[in-house]
């Protein structure tokens, strides 16, 4: 029988690449790990790994077992956390994945309301994924995903939380500061600051720059919103934020907003869940609170 320990071994070997590093991560000796691998292969009567110098490479059978491990282990971890929460008097655990970097202020407000109104429901916030947020949701890494990007999937359903406009944020002293909107060509001489998200998922590229066949002078990724705004304030570059956030921050930083193009770029923030979870009360309650806390 395949046991959770076997699945942990598969994931460790895949992530670490060598017996030594995998053994260290599992708190095992290299010989003990080698013995467990040989025992598992003997029991299954199939080869799972092949040596390539000092590193290990998955066989097709190993790939199949690894795929199962990546699905099963998050589900087991979720169950373990839920059972532990129950043992501590907590009736549920809601793990929220977040793919909207600028949404911290809004999310903090919703989480606070949820904790107050649902005292027996615990909440975890997950920002980093080994896969995309959608895959994390499907593979049970999270129970609810907050994202501006949604796809149709037979296992998932999405709930619109609120609409917002994306705007360019520049220094009050910028040469464009007298304008109310900006055109793609005007950003050719600018350094564009963004959160660490791949370009194909950035609206400023997909819906504004690339259609006009324009590239900014530079592109720098910054995780910290505060640092990004300081860089913009001192005219080191420009950034794009939701309008409601830009309005709030204009009181703290010497910056102003410009509409992107003549029509602007509009987005919707969604809460995505698995269809099998749509009847869970505390998930529905969080979605309701998210809609009620919409930023206009």
Topology:
Layout: H1 4-16, H2 19-25, H3 30-44, E1 49-52, E2 55-58, H4 60-87, E3 92-98, H5 104-117, E4 121-126, H6 133-138, E5 144-147, E6 156-171, E7 181-182, E8 191-194, H7 203-209, E9 218-221, H8 225-233, E10 238-242, H9 243-249, E11 255-260, E12 265-274, H10 281-292
Parallel strand pairs: 3-4, 3-5, 7-11, 8-9, 8-10
Antiparallel strand pairs: 1-2, 5-12, 6-10, 6-11, 6-12
Helix pairs in contact: 1-2, 1-4, 2-3, 5-10
Walk me through the structure.
- The protein is of the alpha/beta class.
- The chain folds into 3 domains: 4-71, Winged helix-like DNA-binding domain superfamily/Winged helix DNA-binding domain (Arc Repressor Mutant, subunit A, Orthogonal Bundle), CATH 1.10.10; 76-162 and 268-292, D-Maltodextrin-Binding Protein, domain 2 (3-Layer(aba) Sandwich); 163-266, D-Maltodextrin-Binding Protein, domain 2, CATH 3.40.190.10.
- It is 40% helix and 24% strand.
- It has helices spanning 4-16, 19-25, 30-44, 60-87, 104-117, 133-138, 203-209, 225-233, 243-249, 281-292, and strands at 49-52, 55-58, 92-98, 121-126, 144-147, 156-171, 181-182, 191-194, 218-221, 238-242, 255-260, 265-274.
- The strands form 2 sheets. Strands 3, 4, 5, 6, 7, 8, 9, 10, 11 and 12 form a 10-stranded mixed beta sheet that branches.
- Helix 1 crosses helix 4 (60-87) and helix 5 (104-117) packs across helix 10.
- The longest helix is centred in the first third of the chain and has 28 residues, at 60-87.
- The protein is globular.
- The model has no long low-confidence stretch (mean pLDDT 87).
